[in-house]
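Write out structure tokens for Riboflavin biosynthesis protein RibD.
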Amino acid sequence: MSSSAEQAAMRRALELAATPGVPLGPNPRVGCVLLADDGSTVAEGFHRGAGTPHAEADALAQAGDRARGATAVVTLEPCNHTGRTGPCAQALVAAGVRRVVFAQADPNPAAAGGAETLRAAGVEVESGLLATESGLLNTIWTFAVEHGRPFVTWKFATTLDGRSAAADGTSRWVSSRAARLDTHRLRALCDVMLVGTNTVAVDDPLLTVRDEHDRPIAVQPLRAVMGERDLDPGRRIFNTQYSQGAESVHLRTRDPRTALEQLHALDRQHVFLEGGPTLAAAFLRAGLVDEIVVYVAPMLLGAGRSAVADLGITTIADAFRPRVTDVTVLAGDPEHNVRLTLTPEEN
């Protein structure tokens, strides 16, 4: 049974894991607090991104000999494998830690088993303390590990009558400036921007993430285009003159599942789907949309391009009915655009 000191330490470990500036992937965010027998803090640590020491190793390095006999409170089960760094479970054993309390069990089969290693070495282990809170900290990472593919957020902007462009093809701007700024905020939470070949050929998008002053942010998502069609290498998505630090890749497939498998192999965990109606329909038909973000503009066109292509639905009884999880009128938006967040029922 966890003590009040361990519960407080776990909350602190969660704070450490969520330290601003820590990359959202490909590794999970993890925090660790080492406690002495009297409940006082010996050392703290957190993971700062792929290739850097894990949270446990960070805390152990600060503690030195003071780690012997301590309790390690960790937001994720200590890993049991050697990657870019050594296994944390064995590091805790070698440091002489007496007890380990962790929140979330590691869903990654390649890294799991740390608890068993610790117990086999005589270390007392307790799991599940604030597991829900820890899981929320790494929702996307956990999803990608458990499903073997990235989480997919489909974003689009539409008029009240479901149009993403007018009859003449013009689409700038269906959404307001406030909506576009909000989109860049959401883009920054992902590690892939994905569009189809037609979008690249016709619209020539930059697909970078920029701040409110139109300046590129430091860490850019991978810019991916999906489809078998050959494209002009001078398109801005491929041209390093416009890259602003972002890499790009052409996924030569029309199958959404294959595209996600390729992105997962590149250690990508969260896809921001911003392609046109054809690409959106392909992902929807395949059941590979996990979240929908819609910016609704208070305007009517009456004709023009639909926000999504044919889904093969012929009767109202078969309508695609995602669940609305949030409705927000964007703050300070004089055009009163509304952002809807929805989740497909099966998710």
